[in-house]
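debug: dumping io for the single-chain case to check the tokenizer round-trip. Nothing else runs in this session.
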Amino acid sequence: MAHKEEVLVKLIVGLKKEVFYEKKSLLVSMSPFFKRMLEGHMNCTERETHTITLPNIHPNTFGELINFAFLRGMTDGRKLNEHIRSLPGATPLPAADQSDDEAAKTGLLHLWSACNYLDMQNHARMVMERIMDSFTRSDPAANIGVLSFLLREKPALVEDQQARGFTVRHMTIKIKG
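debug: decoded output
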């Protein structure tokens, strides 16, 4: 019986154009964005060339997203949730892609933004919960900065009753202690 070789997709990530090669099956299973690009019915060069450019995602953040995909595939989601909970909090605000602060580029806010961009809504929700857990009574200005970032990245959060209720409840608990 012939073994079908796995197709690798070339991903050009970030402003510095770092190259990743990942299995098509992994990408398609992790994100509806990749599924549309690589298997969708629209006529796009990404499907034909197996090359996708992601200039708005930092390579460190993309590497973390690949970790998410592997962890999701290994278990029922508990390992992924544990991993997200182990990540550092949401402050300081994310560094720009051009910044030399490499550690900040895998921060929760970058991850949340990338999950939303790639239509990974379950992952975005788990990261959002971790962001809310990182809020603190001692630095309300940082909390406001984080909320401003979230709303700038996804203005629809204002209209989302569930997200708004979750945010208000969480902020109230954190502020009141």
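debug: round-trip ok. The chain is about 55% helix and 10% strand.
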